[in-house]
Amino acid sequence: MNILGKYIKYLGSKIEQEIEDKVGKLLPAGRNLVFLDCGCDDGEKTIARAKKIGTKKILGFENIPERAMLARKKGVKVYACDLNKKWPLKDASVDCLTATEVIEHLIDLDNFFNESKRVLRKKGKIIVSTENLAAYHNIIALFFGNQPYTGPYLSNVYPIGHRPCGKFYQKELPMDPHLSVMTTKALKQLLIAYDFKLEYISPVGFYPLPPPLFKLFAQLDKYHASYIIIKASK
Question: Which of 108, 127, 119 minimizes the C-alpha distance to 52?
């Protein structure tokens, strides 16, 4: 891996860690709370979040069987759930829901937010993070006539568009495409449209700036940061 590759990987890890740190601070606390992680992968982050909440009532949605099995071994009750369809949970059965770097992969955001509202109890919390379509690296890509780096991606098989750093983060094919990328304002509007009460909004990252510069610039210009974190309640 060359210097550019190492730098991109370094930035990605720092931004991922900041997102996880901020999500951890936003989680509610309570040993009897039911926690749902949408897109729980191997369960590592799910379990860490559950420990911050203080609960052992841990649910997860994960469609990749191998990753779901790893999460189950860690103690997550995993459902093979398509987030674009009705969720296999009862109404008002969850106290806190997280979805980090998940919603950009969905084709039906209306279903996601409607189902989130349905399964959350009154005053239940939803914490979402996703890439920001209005980030400056996307604006620059569009200025030069290219597809935005965060997508939407046009092929599950081929890296269509000008993505010079794709080889450093795209590990395998077929790709899991970004289909529903959005701006911070659009995500706020979606949550409000589904009657969620916004509690916290934070920008994260500012490609291609390194930390601590990306933290400074993200706070100075939150609508053009690389990522968005929003917490809301039902």
Answer: 127
Res 160: pLDDT:
73
Please tell me the pTM assigned to this model.
Answer: 0.93
Q: Which two tokens stand for residue 208?
A: 């291609």
Q: What is the DSSP letter of 33?
A: -
Give the ranges where the chain is alpha helix by DSSP (H). Answer: 3-26, 44-53, 65-74, 109-119, 136-143, 166-169, 184-193, 213-220
- Cβ contacts of 234 within 8 Å, gap of 6 or more: 117, 120, 121, 122, 123, 124, 126, 195, 196, 197
Which residue ranges in the chain fall short of pLDDT 50?
173-174
The mean pLDDT value of the chain amounts to 92
What does 118-170 look like in DSSP terms, one character per residue? HHEEEEEEEEEEEEBTTSHHHHHHHHTTPPPTT---S-SSS--S--TTHHHH-
